[in-house]
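Annotated sample (chain length 164).
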Amino acid sequence: MQADVATLIVAGLVLAAILVAISVVDFRRMIIPDGLNLALAAGGLGFQLIAQRDNAAMQVLIAALTLAVFWALRRGHFLLTGRIGLGLGDVKMLAAAALWISPLLLPLLLFIASAAALLFIGGQVVAAGPAAARTRVPFGPFIALGLGCAWAFEHFVGLNLGML
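Output written by the structure step:
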């Protein structure tokens, strides 16, 4: 069952508002508050229950698996390097994001987020010099960009093309 246009518009506005809030807070404070991640997860679950009730249980399972995979990746990086490479808020955000999109689009989300972050850091290096490559950069805004693009692709392009 596909969501109707009104549901997609409301869901898109809710998603956009939460993603903007996460991006602003993460850029300013280098942290994604649990409350915003919870809002993202609740919004995604609510969207699934309204728009695609039959898939809701699977989306929750995928979100839990996403949380486990990215927590393990975070932990493994720390054990290998002694540094935190992926913040816990980012891990939680990726799990919450998995509630909003098809599991097939998680690689697209990650590609967009990673590419945008690399372009941002590259721009900083060009503007400020090589030392800028070693500065901490919040990843939440880039996850937000990836999620927004993947969600829009799924609901406004992918389904219309019969791709998902």
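Annotation: The chain has one domain: 5-158.
Annotation: The mean pLDDT is 93.
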